[in-house]
Amino acid sequence: GSGIKLAGVGSSVPEKFLTNDDLAQLVDTSDEWIISRTGIKKRHILSEGESLGSHAAAASRRALEMAGVAAEEVELVIMATSSPDDLFGSATTVQAAIGATGAAAFDLTAACSGFVMGLVTGAQYIKAGTYKTVLVIGADALSRYIDWRDRGTCILFGDGCGAVVLRAQEGSCGLLGIDMHSDGNGMRHLNCAFAGEPMKPLSSGDASKQGAYNNLHMNGQEVFKFAVRAVPTVIEAALADAGMEKQQIDWLVMHQANMRIMSSAADRLGVPPERVVSNLSQYGNTSAASIPLALDEAVRRGDIKPGEVLAMAGFGAGLSWASAIVRW
Ligand code: ACO
Where, by residue number, does the polypeptide cross the bilayer (predicted)? Predict the structure, then answer.
């Protein structure tokens, strides 16, 4: 099959943000509690009328520009999201907005594992020789589903978008190894379920519930325990798939959910703290967007250099967890 190159990355977040002190006005919490338990200082949130797709398009344009690829060359757009502007999918509006007129576009839903699963999916099309240029977007606006009276969840999440351009390139080995898992038995610990009653005849349904979704529900301790176990294990399995050792990891680029989860995974893998890419303090948990958002900042800062090995890991609702070992 063809070699794969990660040719560009970009990101975009809403301007508006909420600090921990802002949240302390809404619920019984404090800046000190949030920082010590999570590492989060602020999170960006869509304003009324602002779309997720506009940020996904902005992130995509930046990624294409870095890659030196014209929008017309993109053959496939995959948008990993759990909170699209439209239930029929948001990838096509992004495709139209950026002018990727020749591309097919679809959404992919795998919560906070969505970006890694989307990256792996996009890479398969290149490996198979079907497409030469694929745009993979991670985008979420979980603020749409947060109960702003629930201090256990409202402090954690923020909105944002990131995107990566994948290209076929002979001799390139952008995707070195993967490992992906799901366990639907854990859905009860983290979900955002349809609130209507689709099995009832229309006449007896509660019209006010039609189309509505529940607020995001989470059992924080269960998700925490799951993540601490799953993240190092899935990275080790992806490394084994790549035929590589832990010592070969240049950077850990994990889903940004909680500083304590990232530190514990880095400890278990023997990766020093300065090799853990983190912007969690500035954005909170942006779900499918967090990995490309962190990657984008680290690349543009000059921390991540061409040829370096990144261990990516996403984890979250589903439950789902996935790792990709990537050469930047
Ligand atoms: N401010 C102050 N106190 C709080 C807050 C808050 N914001 N939230 C909870 N508390 C209280 C609790 O009520 C509890 O009080 P009690 O002892 O009187 O009952 C106490 O703090 C401890 O609560 P815990 O839930 O045990 O706190 P914990 O240390 O586990 O931290 C947290 C909670 C931060 C949510 C942690 O469990 C966590 O990060 N879990 C992982 C969550 C995660 O990563 N989710 C995203 C997955 S990605 C996706 O797919 C969406």
Answer: none
Pocket test for ligand 1, best of 41, 183, 221 (most atoms within 8 A of CB): 221
For the whole model, what pTM was predicted? 0.95
278 Cα–ligand 1 center, Å: 20
Q: Which of the residues 20, 44, 55, 112 is marked catalytic?
A: 112
Find out whether 162 and 296 touch, Cβ atoms under 8 Å: yes
201, with CB counted inside 10 A (0-12, 13-18, 19+), is: exposed
The residue contributing the CA closest to ligand 1 atom 48 is: 316
Residue ranges of domains in the chain:
4-168, 175-327
Residue 33 pLDDT > 90, yes or no? yes
pLDDT range class, residue 226, cuts 50, 70, 90: very high
Catalytic residue among 44, 55, 189, 255: 255
Q: Which atom of ligand 1 is nearest to the CA of 320?
A: 50
Q: In what order do the strands lie in the sheet with 104-108?
A: 4-12, 160-168, 133-140, 76-80, 104-108
So what's the pLDDT on residue 125? 97
